[in-house]
Amino acid sequence: MSLKQLYIVLLFCFVFENTQAQQKIDSSFLSSYYMHKVSQFRLLPNAENEIVFLGDSITDIAEWSELFGNQRIKNRGISTDNTFGVIARLEEVVASHPNKIFLMIGINDIAKKIPDSIIVNNIQRIVIIVRQKSPKTKIFIQSILPTNNEFLEFSGYQNKDEHIQYVNEQINKLCKKEHLYFVNLYPIFLDEHNKLSKQFTSDGLHLNGDGYMLWKKVLIENKLL
Questions:
Q1: Number of Cβ atoms within 10 Å of the Cβ of 172
Q2: Which of 1, 5, 73, 154 sits at 20 to 30 Å (Cα–Cα) from 65?
Q3: 0.70 exceeded by the pTM?
Q4: Which of 46-61 are b and which e, b meaning 16 or more Cβ less than 10 Å from the residue's Cβ?
Q5: Which CATH number fits the domain that encloses residue 139?
Q6: Is residue 9 part of a domain?
Q7: In this structure, are residues 128 and 86 in contact, taking their beta carbons and an 8 Å threshold?
Q8: Considering the chain, what percentage of its residues have pLDDT values greater than 90?
Q9: Which residues neighbour 64 within 8 Å (Cβ) at sequence distance 6 or greater?
């Protein structure tokens, strides 16, 4: 075998291995719900000084404008969304040049076993895009919340504590480096067993009304809203 032939074989093996590795990562975010929500967001009018809550179902569920009594607050949460999905729809989010963006994203990536490093890189990419498209927007990155494995409804999201804590630690470091505000909600929602407190959830993953009231309290006490 000549050196040229050997090089081609090695190149083929490298490409094949990387393709196989990529196929093991479920980065999908498209669903009919995602597409319906994005199509609606694109048609809604932009307003001045918008405050955007951006994320997945944990953001999607809340009635943010009513919770804070502020019509400038816009809910841009989409159930099942992940970091890839947020990047894909970020152009619509920054089109209004919002005053503030409150981002919480990553738990669906973790549930799909997307590597922690990719999750953190994607969050950094979100920051970069926002700063490029809307440089005056203030960015607040909120930690991923804990879960509670005593509930069985979302078993695929449970027992991921190490990944959640690692991503949160890296987000904190990113915020310090980029001079962003890190909203560390994770410890506030823990019970005495270091799980998402049953006081704030009915399924071990999502928040109930009391949970959102606590979230609101944290933002107000820190004078972020």
A1: 15
A2: 154
A3: yes
A4: eeeebbbbbbbbbbbb
A5: 3.40.50.1110
A6: no
A7: no
A8: 86
A9: 53, 73, 74, 75
For residue 29, is pLDDT > 90? no
Instruction: Report residue 60 as tokens.
Output: 């999607």
Q: Is residue 37 part of a domain?
A: yes
Assigned domain for 172 exists: yes
What is the 8-class DSSP label of residue 185? -
Is residue 217 one of the residues assigned to a domain?
A: no
- Distance, in Å, from the CA atom of 218 to the CA atom of 50, rounded to the nearest integer, reads 20
The tokens for 78 are 């989409």
Q: Which residue has the tokens 């890189």?
A: 121
Q: Which residue carries 């009513």 as its tokens?
A: 66
Q: Is the dihedral of CA 175, 179, 180, 184 positive or negative?
A: positive
Q: What DSSP letter does each residue of 23-67 carry, written as one string?
A: HTS------HHHHHHHHHHHHSPP-TT-EEEEESHHHHTS-HHHH
Q: Which domain holds residue 106?
A: 27-144+153-186
Place 25 in a pLDDT band, splitting at 50, 70 and 90: low
